[in-house]
Structure to design on (598 residues):
């Protein structure tokens, strides 16, 4: 399963409680839509760290990295490249 | 009679119009600008037929427009009704029907409100805030503010009298909506007491993530405006790092939160790496914070004074405060009555009990609400002989300090949110295949409590945890979705058939431990 599908499946199952792929867009804000809240983001960070074997640093916990599926994938790619 | 909140803000706007009142991201709104917009909005309301005593429902996340809408409603002689911006149509409908607003102010593109208005009589006046993406004919906020074409007549000062100023709903979906009705006197007196003990001045500024539609968030806003200070808005604690950066960047003197605010902050941010030396005070209310979190907060920010406080919506916001100097001696206490408030502990027979004896907390003062909106029956249960029966249990020690010992109700507190189990149970009970349901709050390190649902199924094949959560997500604000769902053969009940929630909480704890 590719990274995009892994992230989508996690959000669908844990925050939207759905298997309907159409209920989650890749670009929509997860916060504005009410999909994730302050504890949801902690679960998301744990998922990213465990699944992609990267460490999400404190200053990286910002909307630009985590507020949509697209942003999460872009962030994971950047981290993976820098990890090298 | 104290001066009303709008009258105080008007004075700030006249004496120092350039001073910043509200900050949201890069937006700064000065007192002068705020007051002009307040008058413009009030003028538009009046020109549009809004009358004294009419209600204006404000369904907005924290933003300068929400402040203007509230103060503008007051200047038009109306009653502001800030409603939970996270609520779904199922939750909003009974509130709107109950307060019957003449005006509705909401964010653009809110599909829930559009669908709701299709099913009920829409208020005659509507204003949409933000970029309009839909086809609604309702005017845009900026058009309304710019619409003023005539000079505003000299507005007579609003007195802080007993006329209703605000309704804050504390619960109620299909059942009885409880609309706490606060007067101008309630709001002004509570703000004055808080300004006094926090020693707030025009040089103070605060970062707050607390929504205005809750009593605490509303109080943080009103006290800082009353002091001539500044409130810097952060919309949530989803990214604690961003909140800390705002505190550091804006060099604010205060930070207000509930226990989960500080638990999230301390768990995700290395506070020592940020320059938070500007912080003079931290306020904590919204339920008891663990002693461990309190000590960690004090260790992380040793230069800031931590004010532990207690109150409830029915008392406008605040009833007691613990002077920071007493925190180490009286840790676990919520302090003593704020100026202008009396606190007593009473037995079930309503007689005052002695020192250190546990009973129900009763309160009296100018901050105690007028009553529940159009509900004399519920009002008469809590307002008795000029006193407020809080529903909270507690004791007062020999030094006069109040220690809370739980509540008489089953209300669940998730972060800053208060949830009545019945609201969630009613929604789940509508799901086909659910025979019986009960929800309880179980302890959670970060949020204080989280919701667990216990369900007896009539049809095992059609209901699983995800379908219950999905059902709730479609009908309730996200913080009301049960984090855990357990399926049981039967719910524990007394011989008379009354649900035993305590037994469910104990069962939940046992399951966690096993």
């Amino acid at each position: 399963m590719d990274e995009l599908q892994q992230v989508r499946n996690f959000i669908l199952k844990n925050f939207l409680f759905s298997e309907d792929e159409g209920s989650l867009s890749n670009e929509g804000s997860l916060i504005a839509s009410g999909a994730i809240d302050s504890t949801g983001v902690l679960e998301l960070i744990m998922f990213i760290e465990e699944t992609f074997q990267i460490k999400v640093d404190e200053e990286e916990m910002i909307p630009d990295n985590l507020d949509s599926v697209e942003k999460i994938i872009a962030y994971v790619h950047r981290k993976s490249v820098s990890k090298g | 009679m104290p001066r009303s909140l709008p009258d105080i803000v008007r004075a700030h706007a006249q004496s120092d119009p350039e001073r910043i009142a509200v900050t949201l991201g890069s937006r700064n709104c000065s007192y002068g600008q705020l007051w002009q917009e307040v008058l413009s909005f009030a003028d538009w309301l009046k020109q549009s037929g809004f009358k004294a005593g009419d209600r204006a429902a404000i369904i907005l996340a924290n933003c300068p427009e929400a402040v203007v809408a509230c103060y503008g409603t007051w200047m038009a002689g109306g009653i502001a009704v800030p409603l939970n911006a996270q609520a779904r149509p199922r939750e909003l409908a009974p509130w709107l029907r109950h307060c019957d607003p003449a005006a509705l102010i909401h964010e653009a593109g809110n599909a829930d409100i559009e669908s709701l208005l299709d099913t009920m009589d829409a208020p005659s006046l509507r204003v949409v805030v933000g970029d309009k993406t839909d086809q609604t004919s309702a005017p845009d906020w900026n058009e309304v503010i710019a619409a003023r074409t005539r000079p505003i007549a000299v507005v007579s000062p609003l007195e802080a009298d007993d006329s209703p100023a605000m309704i804050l709903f504390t619960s109620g979906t299909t059942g009885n909506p409880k609309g706490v009705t606060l007067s101008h006197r309630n709001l002004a007196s509570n703000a004055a007491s808080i300004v006094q003990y926090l020693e707030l001045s025009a040089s103070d500024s605060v970062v707050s993530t607390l929504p205005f539609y809750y009593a605490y968030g509303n109080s943080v806003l009103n006290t800082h405006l009353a002091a001539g200070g500044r409130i810097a808005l952060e919309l949530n604690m989803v990214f604690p790092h961003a909140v800390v950066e705002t505190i550091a960047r804006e060099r604010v003197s205060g930070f207000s939160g509930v226990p989960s605010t500080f638990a999230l902050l301390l768990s995700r941010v290395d506070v020592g790496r940020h320059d938070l030396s500007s912080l003079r005070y931290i306020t904590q209310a919204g339920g008891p914070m663990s002693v461990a979190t309190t000590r960690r907060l004090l260790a992380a920010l040793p230069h800031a004074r931590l004010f532990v406080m207690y109150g409830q919506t029915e008392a406008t916001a605040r009833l007691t405060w613990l002077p920071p100097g007493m925190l180490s001696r009286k840790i676990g206490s919520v302090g003593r009555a704020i100026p202008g408030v009396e606190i007593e502990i009473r037995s079930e027979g309503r007689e005052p009990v002695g020192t250190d004896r546990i009973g129900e907390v009763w309160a009296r003062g100018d901050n105690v609400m007028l009553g529940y909106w159009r509900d004399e029956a519920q009002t008469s249960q809590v307002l008795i002989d000029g006193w407020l029966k809080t529903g909270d249990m507690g004791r007062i020690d020999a030094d006069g300090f109040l220690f809370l010992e739980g509540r008489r109700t089953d209300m669940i507190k998730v972060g800053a949110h208060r949830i009545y189990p019945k609201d969630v149970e009613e929604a789940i009970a509508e799901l086909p295949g659910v025979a019986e349901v009960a929800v309880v709050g179980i302890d959670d390190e970060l949020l204080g409590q989280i919701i667990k649902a216990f369900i007896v199924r009539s049809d095992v094949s059609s209901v699983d945890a995800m379908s219950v959560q999905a059902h709730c997500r479609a009908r309730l604000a996200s913080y009301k979705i049960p984090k855990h769902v357990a399926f049981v053969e039967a719910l524990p009940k007394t011989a008379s058939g009354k649900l035993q929630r305590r037994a469910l909480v104990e069962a939940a704890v046992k399951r966690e431990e096993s």
